[in-house]
Amino acid sequence: MPIKRPQLANGEIYHIVIRAIENIELFRNQKDFLRMIHDLFVFNNEAPAASSYRNTINRSRTVLDSLPIEREPRKLLTEILAFCLMSNHVHLLVRQLKEGGISKLMRKIGAGYGGYYNKKYKRSGHLFQGKYRIVHIKNDKQLLTVFVYIHTNPVAILVPKWKERGIKGEALQRVIKFIENYRWSSYSDYLSRKNFPSVTSREFLLEEIGGTKESQRFVNDWLQFKKELADFEQVGIE
Description:
This protein is α+β, with helices and mostly antiparallel strands and about 240 residues long. It has helices spanning about 30-40, 50-60, 100-120, 140-150, 155-160, 160-165, 170-180, 185-190, 205-210, 210-225, 230-235, and strands at about 15-20, 80-85, 90-95, 135. The N and C termini lie close together (about 10 Å).
């Protein structure tokens, strides 16, 4: 875990975790998850979100009928390389494109999703813990490690404390199938199963890793053999 927050520079890659205050459940139903997915898309833009966006997301009933329509090219603040939404926190792997881009995106999410959540569930005050936690990814090995780390986060839903205890026998196949079909992460998009392809910029990481098959192999090898890709304590954030 880093002692000092890193300086944020354009072109650099960072692992970010935003966590709910007091262990609040951030996503109580599918619509809450969907709202955050769309916030990641709409707020990752220098321009403010149009008021029509809020009306669309509030009326929508399914994932498909609420996908944002890009009426004009966005001026991206960051490239979102990977993401995973968990019950009380969100993992992001991003590359900053604009000066202050990460900070702007985090402020928009804090205000946008926080405002939505407080209004819907009749609460007040901050939704997220103080400052988001962030780690600078410094090399290719750390990049691969955090790719695996983020996309295996949902394993804990099926197998609590799996990192300490391991996964054996038939449970391994159940876990692999579960994370490959976990709706609220970018992993299925990396496996070429279109889920939320407009949110994530996948080309860079796919080239770094070696394509879809290699992405899958790295994740499965970690689950099965606990191969140490890099020091998880340096890039992982619980």
